[in-house]
Amino acid sequence: MDYQKILDEIYAEIKPELTRGKVADYIPALAEVPQEQFAMSLTLADGSFYSVGDSKQKFSIQSISKVFTFTLALDIYSKDLYKRVGVEPSGNPFNSLVQLEYEHGKPRNPFINAGAITVTDTLVSHYGSEEKTIQGIMDFLCLISANEELYFDPIVAASEMEHGDRNLALARLMRSFGNFENDVHETVLTYSKHCAITMNTEELSRAMLFLAFGGTDPITGKIITSPSRAKRINAVMLTCGHYDASGEFAFNVGLPGKSGVGGGIVATIPNKMSLSVWSPGLNKYGNSHAGTIALEKFTTKTELSIF
Amino acid sequence: MDYQKILDEIYAEIKPELTRGKVADYIPALAEVPQEQFAMSLTLADGSFYSVGDSKQKFSIQSISKVFTFTLALDIYSKDLYKRVGVEPSGNPFNSLVQLEYEHGKPRNPFINAGAITVTDTLVSHYGSEEKTIQGIMDFLCLISANEELYFDPIVAASEMEHGDRNLALARLMRSFGNFENDVHETVLTYSKHCAITMNTEELSRAMLFLAFGGTDPITGKIITSPSRAKRINAVMLTCGHYDASGEFAFNVGLPGKSGVGGGIVATIPNKMSLSVWSPGLNKYGNSHAGTIALEKFTTKTELSIF
Amino acid sequence: MDYQKILDEIYAEIKPELTRGKVADYIPALAEVPQEQFAMSLTLADGSFYSVGDSKQKFSIQSISKVFTFTLALDIYSKDLYKRVGVEPSGNPFNSLVQLEYEHGKPRNPFINAGAITVTDTLVSHYGSEEKTIQGIMDFLCLISANEELYFDPIVAASEMEHGDRNLALARLMRSFGNFENDVHETVLTYSKHCAITMNTEELSRAMLFLAFGGTDPITGKIITSPSRAKRINAVMLTCGHYDASGEFAFNVGLPGKSGVGGGIVATIPNKMSLSVWSPGLNKYGNSHAGTIALEKFTTKTELSIF
Amino acid sequence: MDYQKILDEIYAEIKPELTRGKVADYIPALAEVPQEQFAMSLTLADGSFYSVGDSKQKFSIQSISKVFTFTLALDIYSKDLYKRVGVEPSGNPFNSLVQLEYEHGKPRNPFINAGAITVTDTLVSHYGSEEKTIQGIMDFLCLISANEELYFDPIVAASEMEHGDRNLALARLMRSFGNFENDVHETVLTYSKHCAITMNTEELSRAMLFLAFGGTDPITGKIITSPSRAKRINAVMLTCGHYDASGEFAFNVGLPGKSGVGGGIVATIPNKMSLSVWSPGLNKYGNSHAGTIALEKFTTKTELSIF
Questions:
Q1: Are the beta carbons of A98 and A239 closer than 8 angstroms?
Q2: What pLDDT is stored for residue B259 in this prediction?
Q3: How confident is the model at residue A92 (pLDDT cuts 50, 70, 90)?
Q4: Burial status of residue C178 (CB atoms within 10 A of its CB: 0-12, 13-18, 19 or more)
């Protein structure tokens, strides 16, 4: 299939959508990103990759980082991780406390904020400090994206903390139920930092490749995680990857994926490729408006889907 | 792959599980089914099929019928159907009214009771009466399962109506929000009857074949629904097919599927096969205990999964 | 105190408020009532009474009837009544199903719709039929209001049934939890009829007199209910009499009271008097806008309050 | 009326109840209080007072302090206070976050934890620091209880902070909605300290006297608050003073009151007297078991009630 041609077509067709949606404004540092940007990249098993748009432009990966921290924590804790976080869609907005109270402090899944903060908390326990945890996450991200160095944006991280009352409330609520191990501030700071990591679509599509190929990086041959875990991470992306629009995404796109409020989305087509798309304008669910449509166009044009 | 051998293995391994779980007892007619029964069937595109256990034993398909009514309604109403029912996981038990009230009478998806009753209501509007609707559903089921005649169990349907207060409450609540077109009693009766249809695992795996093959029955060549709709029905089965254990099922089994409180489950492996399993003992979420485990064993042994 | 002067003052002051608020429009029969009407009446222990405005104009008493059915049921069932309905404020709108589902079909109090329907259900069980129940309620109302004959408006009752889906949903939901004894339709019809009783403020203030005087009608000397029950009915009016604005009413007016969507309100000042006020325009909580203000003016001017 | 005789009777009758209930154990410092203690005191307008039991024994006043901080804040902010906190019963447990999220960070009333923390936040804004706020509250309490000095228990306050995750979560959640002015830790520390104030029933009944007499201390003649505010504080105590058992308390006791998890309860009988009772064993709603029964006995024996 001529993937470059397909990406070029999508790029041409998507332009009217770039002015729609709304850039995340809950923290000032994200609100400044110009809206009319778009990039899309895909990586194949043989290392060939295709891109269109601003695919070198770094952006805040935000909740996409949750896929990587979940993978890391699953490798460290194995099934014990599920004592602290579930794998069920929540049916509620990403930062809701309601379900968490009814369900005694155990978050529904690792991709809503509460669940991701829990996962970060397990990593802080493992690595021993905020600094070492960020280092561990960075090392892992460099490994899977074949990068030498990656950074988080300290301004975004600080801005996130400054407006982090909701996340601190979630952490405190979990702590009140005994589902928290470290200092609340330290864990939420760690969480804010890994959300503030900046990458571009080329790097992100490369980083997702192991998840499209049963846990093993098909280019380097390195085993990143087990086939069983890779399969399960894809399953959780499909059912829970887009908050309370996860069903819509599965329905319209039909791929395991994870979005971030920075406008990025990553996705896998198991045994075929990994993808990343970016456009900062968000739809009402907090997922990239143009990015979601671009992925839908891609699965329609290629007739690739897991279903 | 030697499917018969795999089914035989599963049958041998599953025996200790047959005493676990709990037969549905919310209506007397279902509570009488002996628990220690098991059957599993799969159908391939070339018409070959494999079975193990009581695969000729008919049972009440219950919520599995929702897959077929959803398919029918989608063909009749196309996208307009989504004005009345969503495609999002609910995160709540199958018969909850809470979300329905908060969301002004529009059910989250066609597989929770409220959503399925809405779908039935659209069918009653289309066919014109309870009797003609049941006939329409039966004709469709005969078509897709290559059967000449199928029946519903009138005792189960009557028992369902007698204990149908919760379903009537759901219907009334939707009606109070203007999301209901026919007589409440008539629609819920129609719903109770199609839930009371009896089939065995051979028939059910056969009936699901078109959904595994893009909407076209690969044996007869008949187009049952469009590729796009088949893909979307599979997506909704994956995200919403097992109530508030849908995430767990996707996570552990990794296939689009739909369960019923009669102990049946249907599933598809897109482009490969369709399956059905049955064992009456249910887990705490109302899904077949042994059936879920059997499917998990099947995807583990065959390494088939959509992820 | 010169009560007539105070009522006259209130009448003069209240005029600008009569165009505010909004006449109940959930059933057509109520929506036709002209908005700019007002009446207020009070009755003292010696039989003297004072009125202002359209105090002979009959209106639909609606939820005010719940005070009388609760009194009747309490006399019949005594403490056993509390097995089926509580006495706690609900914190939710009058017709919400949410709490009822969480709390397994037991309504919070007898003044939200679910609770009042339960009370009516106990009366239907006691009297044996819808017709006899309505007769029993009417006889009771004639007794306490010193009337020879009272009526319900059959058009309002029919209109109420026609738009009664929410009430039928509440009844069905309670039935699904085993908290319902009679035919759902029959009980909700009985409920709709007693809500459709028409009275004026003179009759209503007279009817409430026994509750202001420890259960005994101070004019006739008849014991209507025990002192302990009268006290408790007043307590429930204070904490639950105005749905999710009960706190505001206690805070601003400081009297036990009960409102109806027909625009009527009744209230007691224990050991002093009973009152009724009427104006059809409702505030956002479904309580009479001008009526609430009039009562607030009354307690301010007279410095009468239970606090 | 011979109040001493009545208190003595209650003391004799209440003994079997003292072993029932359960001492608060959510913080270690409270869990150590011996359960079988009881005291009851009442103060009349002429300064005469009556007591029974351990009426000199100081205990942690806990949520009773909310009545005093509410009074203080109402005098400082007048109606503006209601922009930040409502006066409606919550229908939920004292520390629930659910309603707070649905209602965008505005607590239902000043007596649930969220509301009381908001009130404390307004006081910290007014006084300028945690230390000065505690001093302001202490001065006010000394004034109204005719004491020269009062203390908070630093061990209880510290223990409260150590187990204060739920309160910090509530504060954070309100802050995320913009309904918080000071440092979260500082305000919650201030709150924990005023909850840790220790008083006995004699002091508490004396401190409540102004609320029973329209805001003016009848003994000293000092105006503590306006008649209108006194009336409203009583109304909020009646509808919201006992969390989700406020209806039951109004129903069974029939007096405005406020309980604390230290086992204390205060109550007023407007224009007659103020009361305080104490017994550490709590009922399932977190209110003193024997204390509630003692007040119920008091209103039954004296036939005093607001209804």
A1: no
A2: 97
A3: confident
A4: exposed
Residues of B in contact with A232 (CB under 8 A): 251, 254, 307
Q: Predicted confidence band at B101 (pLDDT cuts at 50, 70, 90)?
A: confident
- Phi, psi dihedral angles at C178 (to 5 degrees): 80, 10
The band of C282, judged by pLDDT with boundaries at 50, 70 and 90, is very high
Does the pLDDT of residue C92 top 80, yes or no?
A: no
D77 is catalytic: no
Residue with tokens 């959803």: B70
**Distance from C-alpha of B112 to C-alpha of B174, rounded to nearest angstrom:** 14
Residue D15 included in any domain = no
C112 neighbourhood in chain B, CB within 8 Å: none
Position A149 in a domain: yes
Q: Are C169 and B172 in contact (CB < 8 Å)?
A: yes
> What does the pLDDT read at residue A299?
96
Task: Check: CB of residue C224 under 8 Å from CB of residue C71.
Answer: yes
Single out the residue in D195, D227, D260 at which a domain terminates.
Answer: D195
**D99 plus D50 within the same structural domain:** no
Res C130 pLDDT > 80: yes
Residue A189's pLDDT band, with cuts at 50, 70 and 90, is: very high
Residue given tokens 């004709």 in the structure block: B139
Do C189 and C109 belong together in one domain? Answer: yes
The predicted pLDDT at position D239 comes to 95
Q: Where does the pLDDT of residue D101 fall: very low under 50, low under 70, confident under 90, or very high at 90 and above?
A: confident
- B237 with B89, same domain: the answer is no
Of residues B3, B65, B191, B274, which has the active-site annotation? B191
Q: Does D97 contact A at CB distance below 8 Å?
A: yes
Question: In this predicted structure, what is the pLDDT of residue B95?
Answer: 73
Helix or strand run (H / E) with residue A194: helix A184-195
What residues are paired with D278 via a beta bridge? D39, D264
Is the domain of B84 the same as that of B190? Answer: yes
What CA–CA distance (Å, rounded) separates A46 from A29? 37
Contact in structure between C187 and C120 (CB atoms under 8 Å):
yes
Which of B161, B195, B229 corresponds to the end of one domain? B195
Q: Identify all chain A residues contacting D101, using CB atoms and an 8 Å cutoff.
A: 96-98
List B85, B261, B266, B277, catalytic entry: B261
Contact yes or no for A217/A209 (Cβ under 8 A): yes
Neighbours of chain A (3+ CB pairs under 8 A): B, D
Give the residue from A228, A251, A304 with the most B CB atoms within 10 Å of its CB, the best one to mutate.
A251
Q: What is the pLDDT of residue D90?
A: 85
Whether B247 sits inside 8 A of A109 (CB atoms) is: yes
Would you state the pLDDT for residue D97?
Answer: 82
Catalytic (active site) residue B261: yes
**Beta-sheet strand order (sheet of D39-44):** D49-53, D39-44, D273-278, D264-269, D257-259
pLDDT bucket at A27, cuts 50 / 70 / 90: confident
Cβ separation D99–C91 shorter than 8 A: yes
Give the three-state DSSP class for C50: strand
* Cβ atoms of residues C170 and C114 within 8 Å: yes
Q: Is D175 on the interface with A (CB under 8 A)?
A: yes
Residue A188 and residue A204 share a domain: no
> Which of D117, D165, D182 would best serve as a mutation to test chain A binding (most A beta carbons within 10 A)?
D165
Q: Which chains touch B (3 or more CB pairs under 8 A)?
A: A, C
D303 in A contact zone (CB under 8 Å) = no
Whole domain around residue C121: which residue ranges? 64-195
Confidence at residue D35, expressed as pLDDT on a 0 to 100 scale: 93
Say yes or no: B86 contacts chain A, CB-CB below 8 A.
yes
pLDDT tens-digit map of D12-35: 999 999 999 999 988 888 888 999
Provide ipTM, 2 decimals: 0.93
- For range B224-230, the mean pLDDT: 96
| Cβ neighbours of residue D221 closer than 8 Å, sequence gap 6 or more | none
